[in-house]
Here is the input.
Amino acid sequence: MKRIIIASSILILTFLVTWGHSFYISAFTDELTALLETAETQAENENWTAAQDSTQAAREKWESREIYLHILLRHSETDNVYTGFREVSEFIQCQEGGEYSAANARLIAELELLSEAEQLTLKNIL
Here is the structure.
């Protein structure tokens, strides 16, 4: 009986930690996406300084959780997001509207895919 209780407790704990991680990643990527969408709007209005500030704020939030993200996510995914931030920043500095919009959309899509991959769904389990 003791073994069943211990095994059940471990299973429940694993499920709760996984669920918590999924919720955290979803909220975190939503926050970054909102900042990047704000930056997009600012760039469309030719306010490149504000767009840079919003993008930098998103990048700093990403980097502030870098250890957690590198431990729990695939390195290729975190590297793609980091590369995306660098690419977007370069296009903002050059004030290249079309290229910036495409790079920003790609970065937002990578964040959304990262969040989706971490959700506790049947699609991800199978």
About this structure: The chain has a mean pLDDT of 93. The longest helix spans residues 2-44. DSSP finds six helices and no strands in the chain. Helices lie at 2-44, 48-64, 66-72, 75-94, 97-117, 122-125.
